[in-house]
Known about the structure:
alpha+beta
Amino acid sequence: MAVDYGSLSFQQQIDFFRQKVNLPTQAWTDLWHGMHARAFVVAGATRDELLTDLRGAVDKAISQGTTLAEFRNDFDALVAHHGWTYNGGRNWRTRVIYETNLRTSYMAGRYQQMQAVKRTRPYWRYRHNDSVAHPRPQHLAWDGIVLAADDPWWDTHFTPNGWGCRCYIETLSERDLQRLGKSGPDTAPALDMQPVTVGARGPSPRTVEVPAGIDPGWAYNVGQAAWGKPLSQQTMAAWKAQGGKAWTSLTPGTARTYDRPARIPFDTPTTALSKRLKTQAAVADELTQLIGGPEQVFKTPAGLPVLVDAQALAAHIDPKRSEYLALITDTIKNPFEQWLAFERHEGTGQVVLRSRVLKAFQLDKRRGVIVVCNAVKGMLEAWTLIPTSDQRYLERQRRGLLLYGR
Length: 406
């Protein structure tokens, strides 16, 4: 039976979409394969408020089953409210946002359900949706192929397999296999990898290998990326293959590839340095005074909010460094650069999306320091002071997606 996306929402589908984090992007190629399962993006939407409202409209479509026409009404209202100028025609753009999110969330939810019944229904059958006006020849050729649920072919060919693809997967039992006249699963089609250039209209075009019949950027299993390990080994390898020197890079961007200056210029602090304090409690009190209350939300120039909790942050600050507390808010509000990258959390071992702002200060004729502030889920979790001479450490901080550069 063909899948009518948007009419049968279910909890696993809703859960998949709601676990995503908002990520500002300039182009759809800023993220690749499994990264899309972890982040909500709309190409060209770089402001947090705009992304949040777009996300709300998509969430409504998924959780309430609203139609494309209703989504377009919501889209028009929020575009007018934010004054957003986007590329492409309105009907085309809304259809891409609506259908891409509904189809990927649907299949990610189905993947979790399929895993739950794998013991009794260990085979998966690829199905082509005959309602598609212009079917892809390869997708038609794959229609009816039956493979074991754990066959590696599904790592790249789990549906959807391209823009507008409506193919889906059925689970089968041993008895179903017999009814089809099969004594066992089929042999997986050979992978025909072909080079394709992506991002040709953007600042960083690159050539990628894509299986024949799958659109660039779609050769991944959305279910594995969503419900497996926080980031699959396959996804890590894909990021590394893009040119990143560490698998934690969100994109292969570094200060060098973004053509940023190797040396960060020095700024003069806008607030006088604090006196050196002796206790964590005194640090918390000083932070409370500096930010104007127990907690405060600041906006970076990239438009991302950063919550500073005085008590929580003070617990991680050595009182010996308390004289530099005033540099924290100065760095957040007016950084030299802001970066975004998936990284493994040092405490929990989980992969998190970390925002990092940095800035260099000339404190007096002899002293200079670089301040690095890290935020996870919008909350400032730590700050670091490094000597201006420690160029190797600095370069490790300037990696991922460059959100803002002065």
